[in-house]
Amino acid sequence: MRLGANLAAVTLALAVANAASDSSSSSMAPIEVRGNAFFKKGSDKRFYIRGVDYQPGGTGELVDPLADTEICKRDVENFKELGLNAIRVYTVDNTKDHDECMKMLADAGIYLILDVNTPKASISRFNTECSYNANYLQHVFATVDAFQKYDNLLGFFAGNEVINDKDTTETAPYVKAVVRDMKKYMKAKKYRKIPVGYSAADVAENRVLAAQYFNCGDDEDARIDMLGVNDYSWCGSKTFRTSGYSEKMNLYEGYSVPIFLSEYGCNTMPGAREFGEVSSIFSEKMSSLFSGGLAFEYSMEGNNFGLVEIKGGKVKKLEDFENLKKQYAEAKDPEGDAGYSKDGKPASCPPYDKGTWDADTKLPEMPKDAEAFFKGKTPKPNSLDLETQSNCGGLKDSGDSSAKGGSSSSASSASSGATATAKAESSSSAAPESSSSAAGAYNAARVPLAFYWVLGAASYLI
Q1: Residue 402 belongs to a domain
Q2: Rounded CA gap, 460 and 456, in Å?
Q3: Has residue 273 been placed in a domain?
Q4: In this predicted structure, what is the pLDDT of residue 397?
Q5: pTM for the structure as a whole
Q6: Which of 114, 180, 195, 344 has the greatest number of CB atoms lying within 10 Å of its CB?
Q7: Are the CB atoms for 293 and 48 separated by under 8 Å?
Q8: Looking at the domain assignment, is residue 16 inside a domain?
Q9: At 129, which CATH number?
Q10: How many CB atoms are located within 10 Å of the residue 455 CB?
Q11: Cβ distance 200 to 161 under 8 Å?
Q12: Residue 441 domain-assigned (yes or no)
């Protein structure tokens, strides 16, 4: 009988452990795209993003904030105080483990929007064709492998402000090719349908053309599932009309996938930011097209956009923090479906127009060496030192650590109209040490919780 009791105790302990491990990835309903809105799986209530952009250290010091449990514990408490349901992270290290931080976020009801690039592994504006190579895609796919298992992963950004002025539109086909490759890769791996999008600079000359281009064509895999817009036009005491927000509603009318502000929060006025735009973002003035937004940014970096100041690991909340907290608390989600479009059509592709829109509708073919990742080869995770932008040739086991391309980590520099300094192309990509095969093995090895309870009960009868 003692043997049976001991066995029962062991199996019941295993049951508890299994339940705890289940909660790390299954405590939140995944976000789905329906028409031009977000919904939680199994719910008919729209989901609106109310979040912040999060990259402590900015461009000065590349740190993966989701791999440091102490940083996560510290900052998740502030996320909860702000009333957030989402954060955006620009750069992660896909050799690290992120289970604990992702569980902390899930326990707080917070989703992650993740950029898949890093400053050295991304599409370059200055060497675009070369930067789209098998080594780069290996990095992207390894990041996808590492994060796809988390139910609170809302979606991926395949690029951030790669088009950042009127002269960089020729990069668009390569970014769109990355969208295509990511979506086809996830289909091949039988992952859940995770939204893939693009975060766009608010460039007056081509913002509408870019939005149309990334949502056009017959290949559904090459079309984005969501569009982020980095917009800093609402400054100080401006209004829905004087900020240009009302004009944006006209510009994007009829867009068939969710749009949200992937960065907002102008800082050109003296004093703390009031975040007066929040009341409009979460109102029926915008809800037929927009699904919330992310305030730029959590930590104070060199560009003076922070909600908090971090020194010596200690966090000091600034007036901006309190103002955003108040605005989020007062802004309620619109009721009902809020006018979203259930069955919109993809956009028409903008025609090639030299000097205005230098992007062909024909996309580059995926580099031949990357085909191996669709045939059983596991993408190798690499650290933040990996440099892929100049690796024009075939697949290499590792890249050198010198950055030669035109991208940089973009979490710490503001976009578009916020400052005179344009922000460089996105950074973002990393994932836990687990690759797709490791994640698959983990899921395959999980045993139904009921099995342990049955085994435990049977043990008492021995």
Answers
A1: no
A2: 7
A3: yes
A4: 59
A5: 0.83
A6: 114
A7: no
A8: no
A9: 3.20.20.80
A10: 17
A11: yes
A12: no
Q: Measured between alpha carbons, how far is 30 from 176 in angstroms, rounded to an integer?
A: 24
Domain count, the chain: 1
**All residues at 6 or more sequence positions from 276 whose CB lies less than 8 Å from its CB, including other chains:** 234, 236, 237, 238, 327
What's the rounded Cα separation, in Å, for the pair 321 and 189?
A: 41
Catalytic residues: 161, 263
| pLDDT tens-place string over residues 111-133 | 999 999 999 999 999 999 999 99
Query: Alpha carbon of 63 to those of 68, 113, 367, 403: distances in Å?
Result: 9, 17, 30, 17
Domain range for 364:
43-371
What is the edge-to-edge ordering of all strands in the sheet holding 37-40?
A: 31-34, 37-40, 46-47
- What are the φ and ψ backbone dihedral angles of 39, each rounded to 5 degrees? -140, 150
What the block records as the tokens of 324 is: 């955003």
Closest-CA residue to 289 (of 330, 231, 235, 239)? 231
Closest CA to 124 of 61, 90, 165, 168: 168
Average pLDDT over residues 206-212: 98
R_g of the chain, CA atoms, integer Å = 22
CA 124 to chain centre: 19
Query: Lowest-pLDDT range, 35-39, 397-401, 456-460?
Result: 456-460
The 3-state secondary structure of the chain reads CHHHHHHHHHHHHHHHHHHHHHHHHHCCCCEEEECCEEEECCCCCEECEEEEECCCCCCCCCCCCCCCHHHHHHHHHHHHHHCCCEEEECCCCCCCCCHHHHHHHHHCCCEEEEECCCCCCCCCCCCHHHHCCHHHHHHHHHHHHHHCCCCCEEEEEEEECCCCCCCCHHHHHHHHHHHHHHHHHHHHCCCCCCCEEEEEECCCCCHHHHHHHCCECCCHHHCCCEEEEEECCCCCCCCCCCCCHHHHHHHCCCCCCCEEEEEECCCCCCCCCCCCCHHHHCCCCCCCCEEEEEECCCECCCCCCCCEEEECCEEEECHHHHHHHHHHHHCCCCCCCCCCCCCCCCECCCCCECCCECCCCCCCCCCHHHHHHHCCCCCCCCCCCCCCCCCCCCCCCCCCCCCCCCCCCCCCCCCHHHCCCCCCCCCCCCCCCCCHHHHHHHHHHCCCHHHHHHHHHHHCCC
Tens of pLDDT, residue by residue over 58-98, are: 766 788 999 999 999 999 999 999 999 999 999 999 999 99
